[in-house]
Amino acid sequence: MATTGRQRTVTDKVGEAERACEDLRDALRAAGVTLPSLGLDAASCAGSTPFALIDLGRCNVATARALATALRPDQGAAR
Questions:
Q1: Beta bridge partner(s), residue 40
Q2: Is residue 42 predicted with pLDDT exceeding 80?
Q3: Alpha carbon 57 to chain centroid distance?
Q4: Which of these, 37, 45, 51, 63, has the minimum number of CB atoms within 10 Å of its CB?
Q5: Minimal CA–CA distance to 41: which of 53, 24, 23, 56?
Q6: How many domains would you assign to the chain?
Q7: What does the pLDDT read at residue 1?
Q8: Cα–Cα–Cα angle for 28, 65, 22, nearest 5°?
């Protein structure tokens, strides 16, 4: 079965979102932060024109504080 242009576009968008998610996961890991629910939002990847959103998920208080610290220019650089 041949892949249509629309299917290829959907696949490309989802693939790009997967790569961005992995890049974010790697960057967060380097900053000492793990978001356990980080992943693609399945509903946004469905349909003929997907948004392919990345779901950051939920985290506990300690992870939220670690993320806030990593994002502060004065604190994150000290790591």
A1: 54
A2: yes
A3: 9
A4: 37
A5: 53
A6: 1
A7: 47
A8: 15
